[in-house]
């Protein structure tokens, strides 16, 4: 038996129907031959052997009613989006915090205070700020993760009905069902799905409520397309009398190893026999099994939704092996570029601190316990890297997030990741989804052109009138003509010819499609099709009076404006494919028996099929420039002999084993697609979201390169690229599709290299080939192009593109989308923006920022992003300056006093300096703005300035370093020069000068004064003056209220702050900033 199993395993690898059949037969013999032993055990052991065989390659053969032991070997069907659990929370969060050099440095400084030799001042002053920062961060992370846990729990606890074997095999009326939460479903379970229920796992469709075995599903959360997809149940199981009989089946499903591809599935369903009521005689031969091939159209993936009817499915993949999970990437913790830059500056400051400490000890000749002195100096100068910087920046981020969420111009915008507002000011690449993001995914028929006549959107009532005339004439219901022949009557004859032409084109549009009318519970009718264009056209024919009322696989009925019904038999249907770019249908009118071949498709293929004409090419060009999606409609009347000849040849071609598809296409081309009568040209508009054109133009002017990544067809994407003005009016569009070899890729890249001003349109297949064979070259060229449109992209491809641009350009990338298929891309970007759309909230929940429409992006970036980045850069540098200046004073003080590591300011003065005395004015910088909102949106070029990162660079950092050294040195040296006699008051005078200097510096830095800033400055000064009275150990009150104190402080402050004011005034005259030229 082992040998047999091995042979079976080998056969399984060949994927051939014969070997599948043989293997199942062998399995069968085993099962029936050993009927004397307890059947259950044999069944279980056979299943386990099968499982061991498929362990390595993850393909599986699942019997109906598998045993528990078999099912537990597959992943549980759990949805899990949490980042942490109870055990990993503290280690992970602490690691995320202390991997920043900043925080690690403070931790070491705080811990050093527990060593008596190194203790300087209060321990509290070192530990409290760090503890505060950590508590806030951990609280925020815990809250976010708890919300994720609640969302997961809701998804996992959704209830589903599973079919279970009836306890006694009694001939019961209905199948025996059990209600099970989604997380308890396992491979091999039979699940009953109702209308509008989410599919909980990947399953093969066995039965549907529709007798033809078809059902519609919505896949918007998987591939972002809102049109309904048709799925077909396996014919063998659909034929069964009832769902109950599924439980009696003796068979198995083979499924290939799980992969990411949504459009591919390889499997077979083998049915040996339905369960016989009694065990068969030992010698009887098992009946030959029937083997049905399974493809992607027999499978419904998890996270799709059953759109109509009910169905029964057989689970083949669960949990982490489902297509939906395999196509989502795990969220990373995002860190803003500004935080990384400040982290880098902190390292420089640390080196400065260390160098300063060593220099001071060296100047003292490394006397005594010099290494302890180095450490004491390090701690004295620890204020150079201020812990308050993290507190200030985090509070600033909260203010920016609040400003974004309360902005009345962009209502319902939500900031989900409050650590990234500054990133919005540095975006250089925008990757956008198409369906639902740039477009509303609502199609509307806008134009009908018939060569000599053209009907626009405003003249559709004329079409309805003509149509009524045409159908009325047929039924003899025309109004009685007056006896005198008038000019109007002559005109009517010309119009009758026109109306009959209109009747032909509208009737063809009402028949040539793949649309099914579905009646809802409330009696309303909705049209379903795999393409929204077709639905738009059928809705249009309804609006002009010709209504599709019934459709199945063999027949359809349309209702005329007169209320009569026309019935047509569907004889052949040639569906639309991306290769053929057209769809055709052969129908026969039931009453007259007239045979018609109707076809509609893209102008590029239809132009050579229809009869010669002089207007088609020009008109399609005109419509395409308007951004309309064009379809050419044509027809051919067939004689019964022509159709019979076609039918015979087509059947011969359809049973060929090799080159079947090519042969069938050739027969259609030879017999049907010749000399078609051109009826008309339709223009369908995919409605854009509000203000998309102006927003894209604004973003382009701001220096942002825009890529459109979509799961849609090349033609559609191209139309939208033109109508959204993503492509400039006369810009060349270069299409790259169906590349098969790396040589072709190289040729295309060489061409693009020479034409960098064009727009590239590329399909997913070619994109993958480019990335596999010439990754670096492709990204290098593509990132230079003004616009790129990638079509037929899978969710993971979108995310890969985002990661590649980030890695290659080292620039900030923003991704925006609205469906479940955009989640991976949003998480892979530096900044992910989700739109709350028709496709649900999945993208908006996974994003860092959630908006309700695309046009809000302009204000989010140009105004809020720009302000956040500028303010944080200014705030960070000012806080560093605040720490540096006091450290320079400490260094000067120590150098003069025999290099002793003694603190200049102790206890409350140090605590007050970083908090009460300077915090409010410094923090008020987060309300500063250089230009007003209107100017920021009128001149997007201001945004381009920011992306260069000049607001916070090594240059600006060293400027602040020099300012701090100058001011610190000036205040300390001047204090010492002016106060030889009153040595005890050196602390009071230098500290007062320092505080006033800082308040003046904040004033110099502010561009636009805000009420809060004025209050902060005045109140802080008042608080300082009051506190002097309560700190007698540092201030001699008698001396502080003397005039000597006042004038000497004034002189020191003038020396330290006045030169900077003068320099700033001169610079603003000689080399003004870009924004000041606009004011």
Helix-strand blueprint:
Layout lengths: L1 H12 L3 H17 L5 H17 L4 E4 L4 H4 L17 H10 L2 H12 L10 H34 L2 E6 L11 E6 L8 E4 L8 E7 L5 E5 L1 H4 L4 E5 L2 H4 L10 E7 L11 E8 L15 E5 L4 E2 L4 E2 L4 E7 L5 H4 L10 H27 L6 H11 L7 H18 L8 E2 L11 E6 L6 E11 L4 E2 L4 H15 L12 H25 L4 E4 L5 E4 L3 H12 L3 E5 L3 E5 L5 E10 L7 E8 L5 E7 L1 H4 L9 H10 L3 E10 L1 H15 L5 H12 L5 E12 L3 H10 L3 E5 L4 H10 L9 E4 L5 H13 L4 E5 H10 L1 H8 L4 E5 L3 H15 L2 E6 L5 H6 L2 E5 L6 H5 L2 E3 L4 H41 L11 H7 L4 H5 L9 H6 L2 H7 L6 H25 L7 H20 L5 H20 L6 H4 L2 H28 L9
Cofactor: Mg(2+)
GO molecular function: ATP binding; ATP hydrolysis activity; ATPase-coupled intramembrane lipid transporter activity; magnesium ion binding
Enzyme class: translocase
């Amino acid at each position: 038996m082992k040998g047999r199993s091995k042979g079976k395993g080998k056969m399984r690898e060949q994927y051939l129907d014969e070997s599948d059949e043989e293997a199942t037969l062998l399995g069968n013999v085993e099962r029936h031959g050993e009927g004397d032993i307890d059947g259950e055990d044999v069944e279980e052991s056979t299943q386990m052997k099968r499982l061991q065989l498929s362990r390595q390659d993850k393909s599986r053969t699942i019997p109906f009613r598998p045993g528990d032991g078999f099912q537990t070997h597959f992943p549980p069907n759990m949805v899990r989006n949490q980042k942490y659990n109870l055990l990993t929370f503290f280690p992970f969060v602490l690691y995320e915090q202390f991997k920043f050099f900043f925080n690690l440095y403070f931790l070491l400084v705080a811990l050093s205070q527990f060593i008596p030799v190194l203790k300087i001042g209060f321990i509290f002053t070192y530990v409290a700020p760090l503890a505060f920062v950590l508590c806030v961060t951990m609280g925020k992370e815990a809250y976010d993760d708890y919300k994720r846990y609640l969302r997961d729990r809701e998804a996992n606890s959704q209830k589903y009905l599973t079919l279970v074997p009836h306890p006694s095999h009694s001939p019961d009326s209905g199948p025996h069902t059990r209600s099970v939460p989604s997380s308890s479903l396992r491979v091999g379970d039979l699940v009953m799905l109702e209308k509008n229920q989410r599919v909980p796992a990947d399953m093969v469709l066995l039965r549907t409520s529709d007798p033809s075995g078809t059902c519609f599903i919505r896949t918007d959360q998987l591939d972002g397309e809102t049109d309904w997809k048709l799925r077909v149940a396996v014919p063998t199981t659909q034929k069964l009398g009832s769902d109950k009989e599924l439980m009696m089946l003796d068979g198995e499903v083979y499924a290939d190893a799980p992969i990411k591809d949504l459009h591919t599935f390889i499997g077979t369903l083998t049915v040996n026999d339905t369960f016989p009521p009694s065990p068969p005689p030992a010698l009887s031969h098992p009946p030959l099994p029937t083997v049905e091939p399974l493809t992607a159209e027999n499978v419904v993936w998890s996270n799709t939704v059953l759109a109509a009817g009910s169905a029964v499915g057989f689970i083949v993949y669960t949990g982490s092996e489902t297509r939906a999970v395999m196509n989502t990437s795990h969220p990373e913790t995002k860190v803003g570029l500004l935080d990384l830059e400040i982290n880098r500056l902190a390292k420089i400051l640390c080196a400065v601190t260390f160098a300063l400490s060593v220099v001071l000890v060296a100047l003292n000749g490394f006397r005594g316990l010099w290494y302890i002195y180095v450490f004491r100096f390090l701690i004295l100068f620890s204020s150079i890297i201020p812990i308050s910087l993290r507190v200030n920046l985090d509070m600033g981020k909260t203010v920016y997030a609040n400003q974004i969420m309360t902005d009345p111009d962009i209502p319902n915008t939500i900031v989900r990741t409050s650590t990234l507002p500054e990133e919005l000011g540095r975006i250089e690449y925008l990757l956008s989804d198409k369906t639902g993001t740039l477009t509303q995914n609502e199609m509307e028929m806008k134009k009908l052109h018939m060569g000599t006549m053209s009907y626009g959107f405003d003249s559709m009532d004329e079409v309805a009138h003509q149509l009524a005339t045409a159908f009325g004439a047929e039924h003899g219901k025309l109004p009685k003509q007056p006896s005198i022949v008038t000019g109007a009557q002559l005109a009517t004859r010309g119009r009758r010819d026109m109306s009959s032409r209109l009747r032909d084109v509208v009737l063809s549009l009402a028949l040539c499609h793949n649309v099914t009318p579905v009646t809802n519970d409330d009696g309303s009718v909705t049209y379903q099709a795999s393409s929204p264009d077709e639905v738009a056209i059928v809705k249009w024919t309804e609006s002009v009076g010709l209504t599709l009322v019934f459709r199945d696989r063999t027949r359809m009925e349309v209702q005329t404006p007169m209320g009569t019904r026309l019935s047509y038999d569907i004889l052949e249907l040639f569906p639309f494919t991306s290769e053929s770019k057209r769809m055709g249908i052969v129908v026969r009118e039931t009453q007259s028996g007239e045979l018609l071949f109707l076809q509609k498709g893209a102008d590029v293929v239809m132009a050579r099929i229809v009869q010669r004409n002089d207007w088609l090419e020009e008109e399609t060009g005109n419509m395409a420039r308007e951004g309309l999606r064009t379809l050419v409609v044509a027809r051919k009347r067939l004689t019964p002999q022509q159709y019979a000849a076609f039918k015979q040849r087509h059947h011969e071609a359809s049973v060929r084993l090799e080159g079947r598809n090519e042969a069938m296409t050739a027969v259609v081309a030879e017999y049907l697609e010749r000399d078609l009568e051109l009826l008309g040209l339709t223009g369908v508009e995919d409605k854009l979201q509000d203000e998309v054109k102006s927003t894209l133009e604004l973003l382009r002017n701001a220096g942002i390169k825009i890529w459109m990544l979509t799961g849609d067809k090349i033609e559609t994407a191209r139309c939208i690229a033109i109508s959204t003005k993503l492509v400039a009016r006369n810009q060349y569009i270069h299409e790259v599709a169906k590349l098969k070899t790396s040589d072709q890729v190289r040729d295309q890249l060489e061409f693009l290299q020479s034409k960098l001003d064009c727009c590239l349109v590329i399909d997913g297949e070619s994109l993958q080939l480019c990335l596999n064979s010439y990754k670096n070259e492709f990204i290098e060229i593509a990132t230079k192009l003004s616009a790129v449109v990638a079509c037929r992209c899978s969710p993971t491809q979108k995310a890969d593109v985002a990661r590649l641009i980030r890695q290659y350009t080292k620039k900030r990338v923003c991704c925006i989308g609205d469906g479940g298929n955009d989640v991976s891309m949003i998480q892979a970007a530096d900044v992910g923006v989700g739109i709350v759309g028709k496709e649900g909230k999945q993208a908006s929940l996974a994003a860092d920022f959630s908006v309700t429409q695309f046009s809000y992006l302009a204000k989010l970036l140009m105004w809020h992003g720009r302000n956040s980045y500028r303010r944080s850069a200014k705030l960070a540098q000012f806080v560093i300056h605040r720490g540096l200046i006091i450290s320079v004073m400490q260094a000067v003080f120590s150098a003069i006093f025999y290099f002793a590591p003694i603190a200049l300011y102790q206890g409350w003065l140090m605590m007050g300096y970083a908090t009460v005395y300077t915090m409010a004015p410094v923090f008020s910088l987060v309300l500063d703005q250089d230009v007003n909102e209107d100017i920021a949106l009128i001149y997007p070029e201001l945004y381009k300035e920011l992306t260069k990162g000049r607001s916070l660079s090594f240059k600006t950092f060293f400027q602040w370093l020099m300012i701090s050294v100058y001011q610190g040195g000036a205040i300390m040296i001047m204090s010492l020069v002016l106060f030889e006699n009153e040595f005890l008051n050196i602390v009071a005078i230098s500290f007062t000068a320092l505080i006033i200097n800082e308040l003046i510096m904040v004033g110099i830095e502010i561009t636009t004064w805000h009420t809060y800033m004025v209050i902060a400055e005045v109140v802080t000064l008042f608080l300082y003056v009051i506190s002097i009275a309560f700190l007698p150990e540092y201030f001699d009150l008698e001396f502080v209220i003397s005039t000597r104190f006042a004038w000497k402080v004034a002189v020191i402050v003038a020396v330290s702050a006045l030169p900077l004011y003068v320099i700033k005034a001169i610079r603003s005259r000689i080399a003004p900033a870009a924004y000041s030229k606009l004011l």
